[in-house]
Amino acid sequence: MRRFSLKSLLQEASSGHQGWERQWRAPEPKKEYDVIVVGGGGHGLATAYYLATVHGVTNVAVLEKGWIGGGNTGRNTTIVRSNYLFDESAGLYEHAMKLWEGLSQELNYNVMFSQRGVLMLAHNHHDVISFKRHVYANRLNGIDNEWLSPEECKAYCPPLSISPELRYPVLGGALQRRGGTARHDAVAWGYARGADARGVDIIQNCEVLGLKRHPDGSVAGVETSRGTIGAKRVGVVAAGHTGVVMGRFGLRMPVESVPLQALVSEPVKPVFPCVVMSNAVHAYISQSDKGELVIGAGTDQYVSYSQQGGIQIINHTLDAICELFPQFGRMRMLRSWGGIVDVTPDRSPILGKTPIEGLFVNCGWGTGGFKATPGSGHVFAHTLATGEPHKINAPFSLDRFRTGRLIDEAAAAAVAH
Amino acid sequence: MSQPFRLPSGGRIDRKRPLSVSFNGKRLEGFAGDTVASMLLASGQHLAGRSFKYHRPRGILSHGSDEPSALLSVDWRADRGPGYRDPNNRASVVEARDSLVVKTQNHWPSLETDIGAVNDLLSPVFVAGFYYKTFMWPRTFWDKVYEPVIRRAAGLGEAPEVKDADRYSNRHAHCDVLVVGAGPAGLAAALAASADGEKRVILADEGLEPGGALLNDVTSKIDGKPAMDWVAESVSTLDARENVVILPRTTAFGYYNHNHVCMVEKVSDHRADAPEGLARERLWQVRAGEVVLATGSHERPLVFENNDRPGIMLAESVRAFVNRWAVLPGNEIVVATSSASAYQTALDAKNAGARVSIVDIRLEADCGPELQTAKDAGITVRSGHTVIRALGKKRVSGLVVAPIDPDGAIGEKQTLACDCVAMSGGWTPSVHLFSQSRGKLRFDVELDAFVPGTSAQAERSAGACRGIYDLAAVIADGLAAGRSATGATDTAAGSTPQATASFTGFQPVRVLPTDADASKVKAFVDFQNDVTAKDIRLAVREGFESIEHVKRYTTTGMATDQGKTSNMNALGLVAGILDRPLPAVGTTTFRPPYTPVSFGALIGPARDELFDPVRKTPIDGWAEKNGAVFEPVALWRRAKYFPQAGEDMHGAVARETKAVRNAVGIFDASTLGKIEVVGPDAAEFMNRIYTNAWLKLKVGGCRYGLMLREDGFVYDDGVVARLAEDRFHVTTTTGGAPRVLRHMEDYLQTEWPDLDVFLTSITEQWAVIALQGPKARKVLEPFVSGIDLSEEAFPHMTVQSGFVCGVPCRLFRVSFTGELGFEVNVPADYGEAVWKALYEEGGKHGITAYGTEAMHVLRAEVGYVVVGQETDGTVTPDDLGLSGLVSKVKADFVGKRSLARPDMVAEGRRQLVGLLTKNPDEVIDEGAQVVDDPHRPIPMRMIGHVTSSYASSNCGRSIAMALIEGGRGRIGETVHVTTPGGFTEAVISKAAFYEVKGETADA
Ligand SMILES: Cc1cc2nc3c(=O)[nH]c(=O)nc-3n(C[C@H](O)[C@H](O)[C@H](O)COP(=O)(O)OP(=O)(O)OC[C@H]3O[C@@H](n4cnc5c(N)ncnc54)[C@H](O)[C@@H]3O)c2cc1C
Fold first, then answer.
1. Number of Cβ pairs < 8 A linking chain A and chain B
2. pTM of the predicted model over 0.90
3. Measured between CA atoms, how close is B654 to chain A, in angstroms?
4. In CATH, B517-593 is 1.10.10.1100
5. Is the ipTM beyond the 0.90 threshold?
6. Rounded to a whole number, what is the distance in angstroms from the first to the last CA of chain B?
7. CB-based contact, B739 to chain A, within 8 Å
8. Minimum CA–CA partner of A186 in chain B
9. What Pfam family does this protein match (any one) (chain B) (predicted)?
10. pLDDT 10s digits, B814-835
11. Is the domain B170-297+429-485 a CATH 3.50.50.60 member?
12. What sign does the CA torsion over B844, B846, B849, B852 have?
C-alpha cells in the first residue's frame, strides 16, 4: 500500500498524479474464505480490517451487493458521540470514540474526524431530567458530558435561538465536547484500503442470496449472485437489509426496517460551529466542510424498504430547524434522501452469535450506528475470530430479547442519532 | 452601465418598461422580461462569480435552471429592511425588477481581484480527494487548524444573518392529469388531456411564461405560422377551459409515492409592487391521477481546456439570449459543437449581427442539412475540428482549434479570436422526476442517453425528456401522452399540427481530443464543484469505478445544480476509461429536489404561533388572568404555579401544596388524555390491554389501570371508569394520550379484529376540574344536582353522572393527592364557567388554585408514581411496587409473556424507593445517579438514579424518589447521590413521605 502523506501528494502533483495506485483491488471471489463478511458498509469493512490487523485473519472476503459504503454509511448525518446512558452502551460507544480519535492515522486516510462538540438541547422538564441523568452517569463512567445553561448553549452555538418565546424554549443542554462528525465515505474507503492492503478481498456487485450449511447444520458458505463461496464463518453486517438476508438464511430477526431521511442545504460560508441535536422537536444539524447544512430528520411511521420517505417528515424537521435557527428560513434544500434503518425492540444493536453455528450477526444500529463504526468492527472482528463475543459486545446478544436483559437507550432518552 | 449589447429590436422584453438592478453597487439597466443574467450580458458583463475550489473567474453558462456558475447573493427587498437576502441564486432565473440588490460571491477582496485564486495555482495539489491523503499530522491539527481553513475557502455564498421576513403558503391540490413542463410537448399534452372538459388538468412550468424551448425559437413554424403563435393560441385555449389550471413560475421538484408531486411556485419575488404580506412562495402538494412529464432536456457542455472561461456558454443559451432577450453575448462568436442544434444558434446570432464561425467535431459526412444551411448563410464551418483550449482569463479571447486527421492525430492549430463561445455536446433528456418516481431508466445508445424505461407510477414522459427532439414529433408525442393520460385508447386520434423540421442529432464526445498533456490541463466537467476530466481519471485510476463512487470521490454532480450539465459527461468519461458500456458504470439516482427549494417554502405557514400550535385548556384564559406561570407539556401549555406578588416558584408551591392538605385546592386536569372504549367487547378489550382485571368492575366503579408494552415495561396508567356495561371512560397521562390511542387501535385492528369495540378520543370534549383537600366536598356540594356526595353514596373510586352548575357532568371521586378528592368532568365549553363558580364558592373555604408543580409534589408526598418520570420504558410493575396490579389469573394481556422472562424477575432489579437527604434542606437533582461508595475508581458502579425530587413544605423537608437495585430490601441504608460538584448522602426510605390527616381519599 502506497502511504499517503504530504510528501507523496507533492511528488504526485508534479507528475500529474499518474502514480497513485488503486485504493482496493477488484478481485474475483476465491473458492473459500476463513471468514465472509456480508455487507460492505462501514461496519463490515471495519470488521474485515480488524480481522486482518488485530487477529491476523486475512483470508477474508467482504461481499457487497452494490458499491461499498452505498448503504447507510454513505447516507447518514455522521454525528459521533459516546455519551450514552447505560454502562453497556457507554462501554461500546466510548470504545468507538477512542478509536475515532486516532483513526485517520491508523488508516493513513483522513476521515476528517472533527471534534466540534455535540450539543443536545433540552426543551422540557423531561429532557432536563433525562440529560442530567446522562451527564451524571457519564461522569461516573469517565465520559465527558456537561450540562449547559441556555446562555452557555448560546455561547457555544451562536446561531441558536434561546428566546423564551420559542414554542419549546431551550432549558439547557448536554454537551459532549469530544463528539463531532466525520467524513462517512472516507471511513468506508479508508477501512477498505487498509483491509485490502492486508489481503482482504473486497467484492462489489455481489449479492448474498442464501446460506450453505454442512450436514450438521453449521455454516459452509454462502450463495451469491456471483456463485457459491465457501466460508468457515459468516458475519452478516447488512444494516437495513439484515432482516432480508437472515430471512434468506431461514432466521427471523427481531428488527423492523424503516426509512430515515436527511437533507443538505446549499453550501454557505461557515455559520454553524458544532453539532446540535434536538430530540424533542426532531432536528439534528451540523455544517459540513463543504459548507452544506446537514440536517437529519425522524423516521417514517411505516416499515418499508423504499429508500424514499414522505416529504412531510422533511417539512416537519425544517419547521423545527427554522424555529431554533430562524435565520435559516431562506436557506435552500439542495438534496434529500433516505436510508433504511434496522430497529430492534430496545433500539440497541445486536452483535454476536446466532442459532446457526458459524453464523454471526452485527445489526440493529438503527438510526445511530455510524458513530460506532470503529468500535463495532473491532469487537465484531474479535467475535468472528474467536467465535465468542468480546466483553464489550457480550451484553448485545440476540439472546437478550429472550431473557429480557434489554439495553433500552431510546426509552431512556428517545435520542435518535 | 448602459446596454451596449442589447439588440435594437426583438426579444420578449417590454422596452416600454425599463428597470434597473444594483449589481455589486453599480446600476444595471434592462427591461421587464429580463433576468439578471440577460441584463449582465446586455451590459457586456460576463464575469459573474468565482468558482468553489479554485476561485476561477466564472461567467454565465446557461439561460435556465441548470446554471452552475453565475450564483449571486440577492437582497430581494432591500427597501423593506433586513430579512430578505439569500445566497446562491442563479442569475439566469432571477427575474429582473426594480430595487433588487445583487452581489457576486466567493471572492475577496473583490470579484475582479480575488486572493483565493491562488488555489488555482496550487491546483496540481488540490486534486480530487487530496484532503483524504493529507492533513493528518500532527494528530490534533485537523479540526483545529486545517479544517477551519478549508471551511472558509469552501462554501460559496454567505448564509442569511437574520430571521426570514417573508411568509410562505401551502396548498394541496388534486387533479386528474398533472402536466409538468409547458414546452411544446407539455402544451400539447395539456390540450389533449383537457379537451373533453371533464378531466381536471394542472399544467406547471418553472419559467415565467409557457413555451419552453420555443421561447428561444424565432425560425420554427407550426401550421405555417411562427411557433410562438401556436404557443399563444394553445395558452389561450387552455386558459378558456375551466378544467385547466396553468401555473407559471412553478417547479415540480419532488416526485413521491402515490403520484404525490411537490411543486414550488414563485409568487412575489418577481413583483416590485408585491404588497407586503403576500406570500413569497407557495408549496403545491399535488395528488395527481396521472402525470405527464414534459420536462425537456439539458444541453451538454464540451469538455476542453479552460472551457470554464467567462464568455463560454451553452449554444442554446446563446440562442436564447439573442432571440428571447435581444442580447448579443458577443460580437465575435465561435460555435463549437458536436450537435446539429447549435447551427441554429450560429444562424440566429449571425442574423442578429454577430460575426460567427462554426467548429464542428463531426466530419462533414456525419452532418445533416444544417451544414449546407450554415454554408448557404455564409458561415465558415470547420468540420472535423477539435478545440484544444480557450484563451483569456476573465473573458474568453480566443479558441485554439485544430483539425483531427483521419488517423486521429491533431493537425495544425489555429487560433480563432472571439469574445464568446457557444458550445454544444448534444442533449440529455431531463429524467430527474421520472427517476425520482422510481421508474427504471433505460440506456438508449442511439440517443447516447438514459431515457424513461418502465414506469413505477401512473406516469408517462413526452417530448425531449424522452429523447424526442424534432418539433413536429415532440408535439405529436405530447398529444398522444395527453390523450393516454385521460385513458383514451385511441392515442393517435385528433389532428396534429404540422411543424417545420428542426436540426437534430449529435455525436457524443466525452473530452475533446487534444495533444496537450491530459494529466495537466483543466477541462471542467462539473463547473460549480470545479471537477475536471483529470480528477475523474484520477478517481478511476484509484479504483473508484462505480459512478456513485466517482461522484463522491470527485464531488462531480453534487453541486447545487445536481449535475444537470455534468452527469452525462462524467458517466461517459468513466465508461470510456474503463472501456465498458455506459450503463455498466451505473446511472446516478436523482434525489429530490430538482432545483433547490427554500426551507421557507417547505415549512410554509408552520412557524411562529403556527409551529406546533399550542393546545390550551378551557381554563387557560382564567389561569392567564390569574398570573399563572406556564410550562409546555407535550403539545399543551399547563399552569405550573400561580405566584402571588413577590413569590418565587418555591414560595408559590409551598403555599399551594399546604392549602390542598389543610383546606382545598383546585386544579385544571383537562389535559389528561381521555378515551372512550365502547362496544359489546369493551370489557374484554380492557382486560387484554391492561394488566389488571376489568370484567368484574361494576358499572359506576373506577379502577386504576396499568398498561404495558409488549416487552413488559410500563407504558401508561390512569383511572378508568365503567360508565355502562359496554362503556369505559379511560384516562391516560397528558403526554401519553396519542400513543395510547394508537397502541389500542393497533391491537384492535391487527391482533383482535374480532372484538366489537370502538375507540374515541374525548380529551378535547371534557374539561376536568380537580377539587382536592379536606374541604373539597363542601365546595362542590352547593352546585351538584342529582348526585348524593356523601361517603356512603359516593365512595372513593366511583363515578356518577349528574349535573354541576346545571351542566351535565361525569363526576369522579378520585384523588391524586391522598386527600378527599373529586374530578368534575363537564363539556369543554362549560369548563371555565364551572371553574369560576367553584372557585368563587371555594373562597369561603380557603380554596387555592394550584399548578402542575404542586400537583407533582403532592403526589410524591404520598408516593404516587408518574409514568414517564418514575418510569423510562425499562421499568416493570414490580419495580414500582405495583405487582398487585398485575393479574395472576388472566389468560393473557399485553406484556404478560415478557414479564415471565428471566431477567424481568431476576434479583437485584432497580426498585422504587424514597430517598431522604441527610441535610433536610438539600434538594437533590432529578436524574442524579446513586452509588454505594463514591471513593471507587472510575468507571464507578451505579446502583440507581433519582426519578423525582422536591422541597416539600408539608413534610418540612426535601423528599425524593429513586430506583435503586434491590431498593425495597435496603430501607434505612445510606447511599451517595451525585451533585454538580460531587456527592451527597441520603438514606433509603419507603416511597411515601406524608401521612394524610382527617378524611383521606379512601376514608
Ligand atoms: C439518514 C440517516 C442518518 C443517520 N445519521 C446518523 C448519525 O448522525 N450518526 C450515527 O451514528 N448514525 C447515523 N445513522 C445510522 C448509520 O448510518 C448506520 O447505523 C450505520 O451507517 C450502519 O452501518 P453499516 O455498515 O452497518 O450499514 P450499511 O452502510 O448500510 O452497510 C450495509 C451494507 O450491506 C449491503 N447488503 C445488504 N444486503 C446485502 C446482501 N444480500 N448481499 C451483500 N450485501 C448486502 C448493503 O448494500 C450495504 O452496503 C443514520 C442513518 C441514516 C439513514
1. 330
2. yes
3. 19
4. yes
5. yes
6. 92
7. no
8. B132
9. Fer2_4
10. 999 999 999 999 999 999 999 9
11. yes
12. negative
